[in-house]
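Rotation project, supervised by the postdoc (A.L.). Task for the rotation student: set up a whole-complex structure prediction and record inputs and outputs verbatim in this book. Inputs entered:
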Amino acid sequence: MENNELLQSAKEALKGAYVPYSQFPVGAALLAKSGKVYTGCNIENASYPLTCCAERVAIFKAISNGERQFSKMVVVADTDRPVPPCGACRQVMNEFFDAKMPIYLANQTNEIKLVNIESLLPFSFQPTDLNENRRK
Ligand code: THU
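Outputs recorded:
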């Protein structure tokens, strides 16, 4: 799948955002190695911290459908610069994405920044820190 198609899916997903508090809609589209695309939008709550970002909605939809391997992700918002994912989403991406999997951060004027989870979250807490890298 072309990056542009995935960007269009993310822009379409953004339209579903539930953002009565921030009026800041975000869309995400995640391509699994199965070939399926999982989209997400941010979903806010009157109890603000319960809000879930677009990225995590897309990742959790994919994981809950049995996906474990991913090819690329696009995130889009109507920002001046390509939208940077929050810290919580970076940690969730770190759990499931290969270090160098392409993550395209975009805005509505089609400025695109290519990053990966290694660059977004250096020296991250890894599943291996819980077991093989743990001091017994
Ligand atoms: N948000 C996302 O969905 N993804 C991001 O990358 C940045 C922030 C959402 C959370 C909240 O609904 C709104 O944007 C403002 O923080």
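Student's summary: The beta strands are 26-32, 37-41, 70-77, 103-107, 112-115.
Supervisor addendum: The CA atoms of residues 99 and 122 lie 10 Å apart.
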